[in-house]
Amino acid sequence: MNHRPFEDWLLDDQPLEPQQQRDLQEHLRTCVTCSAIAESNMALHTTHMLTPAGGFGDRFTLRLARRREEQRWQQIIGTLVLVLAGLALTLLVAGPSLEQAITSPAGWITAVVGYFLFMVTSVRVFSEAGAVLLRVLPGFISPAGWFVTVFAFAGLGILWGLSIRRYGHAPQGV
C-alpha cells in the first residue's frame, strides 16, 4: 500500500480537496500507521504553545556574547602559550649559537656553517641507511608479512581519520 500521498497530506498543513479528504478518511480507517500520524498531528495542533519567559532573547544574546568572548580569550591564551613555547624551544636549541653570535661574528658564522653541514650530512646518512633497509628488508619479511603490515597500517590510518572526523568538530550550542 502506498502511504506517501496520505503521509504528505497529514504532515502538510494545507487544505485538502473534498475527494482527497474522502480518500484520506477511508485510508485512516484501514491504516494503523497513518492513523497514529493523524492522532499525533491532532495532538500537536491542540497543544498550547508556551512563550519563553520575559527577557529570554536578551539573556540568550548576552550568554552567547559571553561564550564568544570566552572562546576568543581561550584562543588568545592558546596562541600566546604556543608562541612562548616555540620561542623557548628555539632559544633552547639556538642558545649556544646565540652566545657565539653575541661574542664574535666569526664564531657565529662558523657555527651556522657547521650546523648546515651537520644537517646535510645527517640527511645523506639517513637516506643511505633507508636505501639499505629498503634493499635488505624484502628478503627478511615474507609476502604474507608485508600483506599484514600494509593492512595494519591501512587500518590504523582509517581509525585515525575516523577519530579526527568524530572528535575534530567543536560542539555546537550555547
Question: Would you kindly provide a brief summary of this structure?
Answer:
This protein has 174 residues and is an all-alpha fold. It has helices at 4-11, 18-30, 32-46, 56-103, 105-140, 143-167.
Structure description:
By secondary structure, the chain is mainly α. Among the domains are: 43 residues, no CATH class; 43 residues. The protein is 83% helix and 0% strand. It has six helices and no strands. Helix 1 packs parallel to helix 3 and helix 4 crosses helix 5. The longest helix is centred in the middle third of the chain and has 48 residues. The two termini are 44 Å apart. The mean pLDDT is 85.
Shape, per Cα inertia axes: elongated
Oligomeric assembly:
single chain
Order of helices and strands: HHHHHH
| CA-based gyration radius | 35 Å
Kindly report how far apart the N and C termini lie: 44 Å
Category from helices, strands and their pairing: mainly alpha
Total number of helical segments?
Answer: 6
Spell out the blueprint of helices and strands.
Layout: H1 4-11, H2 18-30, H3 32-46, H4 56-103, H5 105-140, H6 143-167
Helix pairs in contact: 1-3, 2-3, 4-5
List key phrases describing it.
about 170 residues; mainly alpha
